[in-house]
Fold:
Amino acid sequence: MKDTGKGPALLRLNNEKRVMTALRHQRVTSRQDLSRALALSKNTVSLIIDDLIATGRVEERGAVTSSGVGRRKIEIALRPEMLQTAGIMVERQRVHMRVCDYFSQVLEEKSWQTQTQAPGPLLAELAQCCQQLALARPALLGIALGFPGIIDPQRGWMHHSSHLGWSETNLLAPVQAGITLLLAMNSVKAAALLSVQQLRLDPSDNCFYLRVAEGVGGALVRGGSVYTGSSWTAGEVGHLTIDSQGPRCTCGRNGCLETLISIPAVQRQFAERVPGLSWEKRECAPEMVDELMVQAGDRLGIALGQIMLLLNPANIVVDAPWSHHPRFVAAAQQRAQSSALGFTVQHTRLHFLQERIDPVTGLALAVIERYESPVG
Ligand SMILES: [Zn+2]
Structure:
C-alpha cells in the first residue's frame, strides 16, 4: 500500500486524544504519571503537553514535593473552560440548552417554549441558536442535538419519534452550517453516558441506564460508548411488555413498562384512586401512595430482571422520580431478585439515583466523547 504520510500525524492526533481523556478523568496529574498510565514514551507525552500548554488548554500547577529520588514532577491540569461543548434537547413544545466546560460543569443554560410539530421550522430555529453559540463562544468544540425517538447517530437521521410526531428526518443537514462538530442522538442515550461519569463507574464495565420521565427509555453503555443495536432501538425498555392486559401504549401494544411507571402513567394512577391526588400532593394520602409505589416498583423489578438476564450488565442505574420513595426501591429490588438467576443478581449492582441526570449535560458530554474518540 502506498504510504500517504498520514500515519505519524494520525498516531500523534490519537495519542493527544488519549492524553485528553486521561487528563479529564484524573483532573490533576504529571507528564511522568501520564506516560506510565498510557504506556507512551515520556518524550511523546511531553511534546503533546507542551502543545496543549501553548494553545492554552493545559496549565502547569507547580512542582510536587517528593521524598523519592529522580526528576521532580510538575503537576499539570486541563483548563476546562478552554474546551466548551453544548447540548440542545428537544421535547414536545420545549427546548433546553446548556453550555458546559470540559468537566461537565454548566456555564450557561436556557429553556424556552416553541412549536415542535413540524421539523422544518424547529430545525431552522436550532440552526440559528447554534450559529449564535458558535459566534459567542470561540472555545466551543461542538454541539449535540438530542431528541426523543429512534435515531441513527452516525447519519444524524431520525427514523421515528412518537413524542414529536416526526418520521424520516435529516436532523443535521439543516443545522450544520459553520458548526465543526455537530451530533444528533436520542437524549436518553446521552443521559446514559453521563450516568457512568456521575457515579464514577468503571468505564470498562457494562452499565445499563434506565430513565423514567414522560416516557421510559434506556441504554447500554459499553467501554464508554452507547450500544445502539442494528436498528437503533437497543435499550428501549419502555416497550417491554410487563402486563399484557395493561393499558394501550403509543406503540400500539398493551401493558408496556412505559404505560405503567412513566410520570404520566403514575400521575394517572394517583388521580384514579383519589381525585386530585398527585405525586406533588403525596402527603395527603400516604397509604395510597405507598401502595402505588410498591406496584410501580414491582413492575420495574420485572423489567430489571429481564435486563439482567439478557445483558448481564455490571451496573444498572435507575433514574426515576420515584427513587426517593423507599417502598418503590424495595419492591423493585425484591422483584428483580426473584426474576433473575441468583448468580446474575449477586453480580449486578443496582443504583437508584437520588439526584436525577440532566440529559442536556449528557449531550454536551457526548460531544467530548466523540472529540476524544480515535480517528482513522
Ligand atoms: Zn409500547
Notes: The pocket of zinc ion is lined by residues 239, 249, 251, 253, 256, 258 (CB under 6 Å).
